[in-house]
Each structure stands twice: as C-alpha cells, then as structure tokens.
Amino acid sequence: MPQGPWNDRVRFSREGTPYVPGVIAVDAADGEQGVRDALITVLSLIGIDDPADRYIVEQIFGSWYRITLSANDDPAVFADLFREQSQISAAQVIHVLFGHDVKGSPFFASPFFASPFFASPFFASPFFASPFFASPFFASPFFASPWAIPNVQLDGVQPSSARPVPSTGRNAPPQGKGYGGARVAVLDTGWIANAHAHLQGMVQPTVHDTSAIANNAGISLIQMPIDRLDVPDGTGDGYLDPITGHATFIAGIIERHAPGTRLDIWPVLTEFGDGREDDIATVLFSLADKANRPDVVNLSFGAYLFDGPAGGKLSQVGLLESAIKALQQLGTIVVASAGNDGSFAPTYPAALDGVVGVGAVDGNGNPAPFSNHGPWVRACSFGVDVISLFFDDFPLRANDFYGVAPKAFVGWASWSGTSFAAPHVTAAFAREIAAQGPMSGPKAANKLVESLLGPDTAPTRLAGLGTLVQND
Fold first, then answer.
1. HEC states along the chain?
2. Tell me, which fold does domain 165-468 have in CATH?
3. End-to-end CA gap in the chain
4. How many CB atoms lie within 10 A of CB 417?
C-alpha cells in the first residue's frame, strides 16, 4: 500500500475500488426514520450489540443519507445488508475519485493489479505489444517502483507531471468579440490566484467555497472542504504537488476555445487528486437549480469501480449518478475524462449513462497511447502536451523525476492527460450553447450532443474513442 496523505481517508476493496473508510451511503424514500429502522435490522443480523443510536445518520441530499459506522465495521458488508432491507432503494460504499493526468494514481497500488483481470486476453492484445510499451517511459523508475511511482516526495507520492513552457501568448483567445453566454462549472481543485491575468481578455472565474453548501440548520454538508486557492507546494519539499493547478489549467483551455464563457470553479479534489464521492455529488446536486444551473459541467476525474452494479437497482455509484441525473434532467450536459491507464475498463463518472466520456488524441489526431478507450468513450480531443494556464515563478527542483534542470514557471505549463481533452469537448458545447441559447431540457441537450457527436454528423470517429472534436 502506498504511503501518502490519503492513507487515513482512502481504502481499496479486493477488486481495487477506492472508497472512504467508516461510512456508507443509502437511498431511503422514507427518510431518516426508514434508515434507522433498517439499521436496527442490519445490526441484529450481524450480531453487533452497539445500539443503533450510536451510528450517525445524516442527510446528504434528497433521499440519500450517510451512515457513519463504528471503527471496526466493514462498509462493504454493511452496504450489502442494507440493500436487502425493504426501506432501502440502494446502498453503497462512498467512493474516492482521482484527478486524471499522465503519471498514475494510488489505484496502481491496489489489489486490482493482482487480480485475474490482468491475466485476461485484453492484456495480451496488440495494444500492449505496441511500441508505446517498449518506449523509455516504461523503462523509467516510475514502473520499477514498489507501487508504480517513485518515492521522490516527502509524502511518498510522485510530483506533478506539468512542465514549464515560455510565456509566448500562444494561448491568447482570438481577437474580437468573445462567445459569452454559456455557463460552465468545473469541479476540480482550487484556483491559482491571478492566473487569468496571463490570458488576454480572460475574466477571473468565480471560485466557490464548497463548505458554504449547508443544510437548513446551517451545518456544512461537505465532509472534506478544499481550499479555494491552490498553492504549488503544500508539502514544502520543492516539488509540485501532484494535481495542484489542475482546475486552472482546465479553465484556461475552456477560455481559449470558448472565450467569454462564464466559469464557476468548485474545489472538490485535494492537491493529491483525491475527492470524496459524497462531496462531489453534494456539489452537483446543489447546482441542479433551474434558475442558476450550469449549461455544461466538466469532471476531469474518475475511478474504476469493479464491484459493478447492484442488480435491478441503481448502480453502486447511485449517489453520484443521482446527482448527475438531477442536472441532466434540467438540460445540463456533463462531460468527464476517461482516464489515462490505456485501459478498456470503464471509469466513472465517464461511463455513466448520458455522460460524455472523453479520451485523448495527440496533435495529429492519433489515439494517445495512455488514453482509456472502449464503447463507453463518446468523444476524444487533444490531450497530449496541451499548453494552458499555470503557476507563476515556481522553481523546479534539480534532478526531479523527469530530469529537468531547475526552471521557473511563468504562468504557463504543458500537461498531458484525458483531464485536458475533456475541457476541449466542454468548450465545443459551450460555443454551441452560446450561439443557440441554454438547453430547455434533456431532449434539447441530447439533440445538441447528437449534433456534435452523432454518427450522422460527426466527420471523424475513432475506434474506442468516439467522435474527434477539433476546436482549431
């Protein structure tokens, strides 16, 4: 198991699914009383003597409730037993989702990689015999380390793979009137202070305090509040934290290709890339306000959830799925990155029904070898050596993982990953919405998605990566 700052907040199931220890989420139409009635039955089945009132039950949103368990309770066992209770429509562990960039995540330390899945014919496919897997990248210390990343940081995690580039103005928006009008929510990390000043004509996004999302009693519904502003090196070890600056980079891409878009940044991921499913779902559900909903939501994160759907009920990502559906029913388009492990296995939320999952291609329109792929990937766009907004004047440490001599960031960086392909697709939708006006509901939104990505209208489609979206 990797040692890192998430050790006290992330566990992995035997299948490799990341989850929050000590809590589960249940969907109960009868409200809190129905949850407590089911809890009494579950405790009796397990033979636990603790009284039910020692377990904390609190509403997440709608009919979803979070149950805080005792220290020795197994969340997966509790979730299985709750699903059998008549008062409960769905029950699940609360997953942990990770930001996507090309360098791996704690997922690679999980038992998943010791599972029979990796002995399947998929891993004997021509893809894994490609020159990509014979490249020097796969001979690097990254893949020789105990858990697929080198222990180069004080906290035991790999630093960011973002690289500095000169400030050349190459990403300034086109001159003239911006598109404007469309509203895009980016759920991600915090914002880099004053980063917008590097992009000509860009208005600073609205950066929200997620802890302000509260219940009627004024108690915050967010379990792990994230700072509104990113810092480059929160650990003080001289390396960029793994995902810091992620949201700012994404916002710069959207502004570059849909200038004038109204951007809302909602911090839900730590600088190490992890975010709680219940917090992410809470933010999404709070956005499902007909008067103020976003036109498009960009989610550049995900996780593999190999315990799969519960038969006949909402899947075990029902909590996240319910929040996304609430937005989709109002006409919001949800875009999510597919992941960077070169895998056919679906990641969530990208593979959820109605979500536009996005893979990556290089500058020539060829599939990026790191991009996840499969029938669940609906679109793809540029995701290799993307240039966008980043920190200003942060010196890199010498002899870092990439062997780059000390340089200074000057407000720009180059970064690769499906995380950065997704906002290209988000920007394409934002441009269309700005021209047509907000979508009136799910039918109008689906029609717009089909007009951009459908087989009858899309000029280029790639096997396993869907429709190629080109903005330039």
1. CCCCCCCCCCEECCCCCEEEEEEEEEECCCHHHHHHHHHHHHHHHHCCCCCHHHCEEEEEECCEEEEECCCCCCHHHHHHHHHCCCCCCEEEEEEEEEECCCCCCHHHHCHHHHCHHHHCHHHHCHHHHCHHHHCHHHHCHHHHCCCCCCCCCCCCCCCCCCEECCCCCCCCCCCCCCCCCCEEEEEECCECCCHHHHCCCCCCCEECCHHHCECCCCCECCCCCCCCECCCCCCCCCCCCCCCCHHHHHHHHHHHHCCCCEEEEEECCCCCCEEEHHHHHHHHHHHCCCCCCCCEEEECEEECCCCCCCCCCCCCCHHHHHHHHHHHCCCCEEEEECCCCCCCCCCECCCCCCCEEEEEECCCCCECCCCCCCCCCCEEEECCCEEEEEEEEEECCCCCCCCCCCCEEEEEEEECCHHHHHHHHHHHHHHHHHHHCCCCCHHHHHHHHHHHHCCCCCCCEECCCEEECCCC
2. Rossmann fold (3.40.50)
3. 43
4. 28
Q: For residue 211, what pLDDT is reported?
A: 95
Chunk the chain into consecutive blocks of 10 residues (it has 472) and report each block's average pLDDT, rounded to whole numbers: 67 83 95 95 87 89 95 90 95 91 49 37 37 34 32 56 75 50 95 88 90 91 95 85 94 92 96 95 95 95 70 62 96 97 93 96 95 96 95 72 65 94 97 92 94 79 93 74
Predicted model pTM: 0.87
91: β partners: 26
Question: What does the pLDDT read at residue 471?
Answer: 82
pLDDT of the residue at 149: 36
pLDDT, residue 15, reads 74
Cα dihedral 363, 366, 367, 369 sign: negative
- What is the Cα Rg of the chain in Å? 22
Domain ranges of the chain: 165-468
Alpha-carbon separation of residue 222 from 17, 82, 188, 240, 275 (angstroms): 22, 24, 14, 26, 11
Q: Identify which of 284, 265, 296, 241 has the alpha carbon closest to the alpha carbon of residue 191.
A: 265
